[in-house]
Q: What sequence folds into this?
């Protein structure tokens, strides 16, 4: 293969998105042929690239898996306070990385893959893919709440206004929410800003991939048809 930037190489190994790869490089955790990597370094399969001393290699076969993350599981393994991490509970024959996390108190669909480009696309809001959630709230879902939530909510701690979204009332204190944005704990922050509180939150869809009949802790490899449609939605080359 032709030489490529080391951050892209890490992404193509399915280890992390390019942004996360940049962070690993900045932290000095990446070496190339025994030397600490710099951001502009070019590498190929002939080079020995390591993260935290462990060699990584390009993976020819790419896997995309739908996984039901149980409530109480923390996605990132770097959280020193996590009681239970995704790495501890998710078992698959090939190392996979999540593409868009769910917070510890939330449950539902995670896309797990070793396709670095797919991870990048799923973690960038600019591609406009939808993420759908079933939410139970502490207080009643009023018409005023629905109108304000859908129109965009100012989040003072993030100093930003959320993008317009779709919200449908499904019960006295229940709603389905569809976002194309992915701010940290976005739905919880939005509800709090509007004087309500999330009691439970479950992600049931990412783009065209559905949680379906999966139970907490279960996974399935998505079909060829689903993967083809997903890549088309994300404007990826097939």
A:
């Amino acid at each position: 293969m032709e030489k490529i930037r080391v951050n892209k190489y890490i992404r193509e190994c399915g280890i992390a998105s390019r942004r996360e790869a940049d962070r690993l490089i900045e932290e000095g955790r990446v070496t190339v042929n025994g030397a600490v990597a710099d951001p502009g370094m070019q590498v190929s399969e002939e080079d020995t690239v390591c993260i935290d001393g462990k060699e990584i290699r390009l993976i020819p076969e790419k896997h995309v898996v739908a996984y039901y993350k149980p409530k109480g599981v923390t996605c990132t393994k770097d959280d020193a306070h996590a009681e239970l991490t995704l790495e501890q509970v998710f078992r698959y024959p090939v190392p996979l990385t999540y593409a868009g996390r769910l917070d510890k108190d939330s449950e539902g669909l995670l896309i797990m893959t070793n396709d670095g480009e797919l991870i990048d696309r799923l973690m960038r809001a600019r591609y406009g893919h939808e993420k759908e959630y079933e939410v139970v709230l502490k207080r009643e879902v009023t018409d005023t709440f629905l109108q304000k939530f859908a129109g965009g909510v100012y989040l003072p701690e993030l100093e930003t206004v959320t993008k317009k979204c779709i919200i449908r009332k499904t019960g006295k204190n229940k709603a389905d929410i569809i976002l194309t944005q992915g701010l940290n704990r976005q739905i919880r922050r939005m509800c709090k800003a509007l004087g309500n509180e999330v009691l439970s939150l479950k992600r049931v869809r990412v783009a065209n991939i559905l949680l379906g009949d999966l139970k907490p802790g279960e996974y399935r490899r998505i079909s060829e048809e689903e993967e083809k449609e997903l890549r088309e939605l994300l404007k990826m080359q097939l």
